[in-house]
Amino acid sequence: MTEHRDVATGPPDEYVEAEIQRLLTEDPDVAEQGITVARKERGLVLSGEVESPHRREEILRRVSERFPDVPITSDIGLIRTQAPTEIEQLP
Asked: Model-level pTM?
């Protein structure tokens, strides 16, 4: 008996998860090592922090373009990039 796999369903989630992680770290236009990919009940969640809302949107756009059939949720926050308002005194 042979195993039948519907081609339209695509690869299993763990392969998609690994491919997205590879895209995030190896694509020179993305190059984000601080973003993680986790499988959830209804898709994948991207977590981590980036320096701007534009950067977050660009990452989500690239992942959605490459994997249009995968439900992606963003839990990507923003890193505080403003200079401190007080001088830190070291002992």
From this structure: 0.70
